[in-house]
Amino acid sequence: MTRYQHLATLLAERIEQGLYRSGERLPSVRSLSNEHGVSISTVQQAYHLLEDKQLISPQPRSGYFVTQRKAQPPVPQLTRPVQRPVEVTQWDAVLEQLVTREEGDIIALGSGVPDVTQPTIKPLWRELSRIAQYQQSELLGYDSIHGMRSLREQISRLMLDSGCVATADDILITTGCHEALSIAIRAVCEAGDIVAVESPSFHGTMQMLRAFGIKVVEIPTDSVTGISVEALELALEQWPIKAVILVPNCNNPLGFIMPDARKKAVLTLAQRFDIAIIEDDVYGELAYEYPRPMTIKSMDVDGRVLLCSSFSKTLAPGLRVGWIVPGRYLDRALHMKYIVTGSTSTFSQLAVAEFIRNGNYHRHLRRMRQLYQRNLEDFTCHVRHYFPCGICVSRPQGGFMMWVELPENIDIVPICCALREEHIHIAAGSLLSASGKYRNCLRLNYASPCDAATEAALRKTGDALNKALENA
């Protein structure tokens, strides 16, 4: 950490602790320089960093002030799903959301798509153009079932940041994280089996479980610390669960990062009951704090964790490049890969490998983390302003998804249908539950900057919610 980053962190902690109150003037640049024994430029850089995070704001000829903030709404409490094996539903609603992608004039507030318009992605376009220009005929043929070694080597280096040591031979390239999760599920489960999942949970994973004839036990989940270890232990004692599926880092949709102690506790349970852990780390690189959080896979000593990820959320979903580190299930995963897609597009793999090798990936990640954190502040502000009183809002620690919980007498599903007529798409919470719970909740995507059109969409959404609350 540089001097200015260290100073910015110290000042941010003082603001959070209330030592510098909302609206209060901060010490002058010169006085902080003298107090901490650093240069004036170091203090100025620290203040600029806090300004980017919207913690402080400058006032001409007056200095810097702590940003005025409204009281934060409370975070959602521990969820309480039905804790018994159920069959996954909601396919019709998921299909309707997928169809929404084809409507070009819709404001998608509920999708899982990142911002792909930033200038740091331009080197990727250059790599794609360069590869096409050379017209290497081998790139039009079938790739190895394992994927291109050059990309697997780059991924193995990236994984070191999460504490995970894996060689290129441990990694299997897939067509996005969706295929990685599909391979992982079929590598450890069969039709009629039971798996445990966080609740709420990614609807794509649950639709796979539905297709494979696998039942689900939804486990209570805290919006700050993640899945309840105690509830998971109880479920493992009651039911013959084969695997637990988790998104422990920058969770979709709650945004939490599970503390390392809880990750270790879940792994200990998996060892005790001899089950697999399917870890979805697709958002892990987008944690706002550096270094990025550890994966459960980094703590795995007996190969029972199947780590799945991709570049769909960090770069672009259209690349369709993901990977799985299946541990002890490698042979089974290879077979599943072969019978589904055989091999992955070599064109995208080579472009991504070069993008990483040239240092462009880390530059892009730094920009996206900062952008998403700023967007979160803007969206949270608008949600507080336009949405009804009495709501609970998650406080994501990374990624670009937030979870909003309204009073229980509100049904979001018909509101979603009404807003679609206004060309606004939000995701009802029931999409993210195997049993259709959370009809009073919604998921918002804040990947794109909050321009006038997006703010107007949030205002219309808030108007619809306020009206529904009045009529409830």
UniProtKB/TrEMBL annotation:
<feature type="domain" description="HTH gntR-type">
    <location>
        <begin position="1"/>
        <end position="69"/>
    </location>
</feature>
<dbReference type="InterPro" id="IPR015422">
    <property type="entry name" value="PyrdxlP-dep_Trfase_small"/>
</dbReference>
<keyword id="KW-0663">Pyridoxal phosphate</keyword>
<dbReference type="InterPro" id="IPR036388">
    <property type="entry name" value="WH-like_DNA-bd_sf"/>
</dbReference>
<comment type="similarity">
    <text>In the C-terminal section; belongs to the class-I pyridoxal-phosphate-dependent aminotransferase family.</text>
</comment>
<keyword id="KW-0238">DNA-binding</keyword>
<dbReference type="GO" id="GO:0008483">
    <property type="term" value="F:transaminase activity"/>
</dbReference>
<dbReference type="Pfam" id="PF00155">
    <property type="entry name" value="Aminotran_1_2"/>
</dbReference>
<protein>
    <submittedName>
        <fullName>PLP-dependent aminotransferase family protein</fullName>
    </submittedName>
</protein>
<dbReference type="InterPro" id="IPR051446">
    <property type="entry name" value="HTH_trans_reg/aminotransferase"/>
</dbReference>
<dbReference type="Pfam" id="PF00392">
    <property type="entry name" value="GntR"/>
</dbReference>
<keyword id="KW-0805">Transcription regulation</keyword>
<dbReference type="InterPro" id="IPR015424">
    <property type="entry name" value="PyrdxlP-dep_Trfase"/>
</dbReference>
<dbReference type="InterPro" id="IPR000524">
    <property type="entry name" value="Tscrpt_reg_HTH_GntR"/>
</dbReference>
<dbReference type="InterPro" id="IPR015421">
    <property type="entry name" value="PyrdxlP-dep_Trfase_major"/>
</dbReference>
<keyword id="KW-0032">Aminotransferase</keyword>
<keyword id="KW-0804">Transcription</keyword>
<dbReference type="InterPro" id="IPR004839">
    <property type="entry name" value="Aminotransferase_I/II_large"/>
</dbReference>
<keyword id="KW-0808">Transferase</keyword>
<dbReference type="InterPro" id="IPR036390">
    <property type="entry name" value="WH_DNA-bd_sf"/>
</dbReference>
